[in-house]
Amino acid sequence: MSATADPADKSNPVTRLGFEEGQIIQELGYDDDTDHELRERIEEFTGTDLVDEDYDDVADAVLLWHRDDDGDLTDALVDALEYLAEGGLIWLMTPKTGRDGHIEASDINDAAKTAGLSQTSSINIVKDWAATRLATKSTAAKSGGKR
Questions:
Q1: pLDDT at 121 over 50
Q2: CA distance 87 to 37
Q3: What domains, with CATH codes, occur in the chain?
Q4: SS percent in the chain: helix, strand, coil, step 5
Q5: Residues 38-87: tens digit of each pLDDT
Q6: Is residue 64 a contact partner of residue 80, using CB atoms and an 8 Å limit?
Q7: What is the Rg, in whole angstroms, of the alpha carbon atoms belonging to the chain?
Q8: pTM for the full predicted model
């Protein structure tokens, strides 16, 4: 583990996302409004740079920033699955309620189901963003649907 992040520290947003040292995290939907501190903390904790949409190998997890006006959420989730390792997770980052680009929980759930994913948890991760943990059906079944 990284010397700078205690894995037992549940106040650390990276720990709450469950990322581990050495993991490859593919980031999709990056824009000026993403939480730059969270991105930096993920890179510091994992010891690897976030990779973008041009990455053409398998990623351990996907960090998908998505806003209401970014287009079809189901399509974005299907695209996120393209290089996701078996058992990998998608963390869908959406603006919190009351913020520009907010997406209703029911819309997230519908898009996840259509993409073949299960919504397993949602957390308020940083000031302006909520995180929704999405797993493939086999990953969700193995974990009992819980993190």
A1: yes
A2: 27
A3: 13-136 (3.40.50.150)
A4: 30, 30, 40
A5: 999 999 999 999 999 999 999 999 999 999 999 999 999 999 999 899 99
A6: yes
A7: 14
A8: 0.86
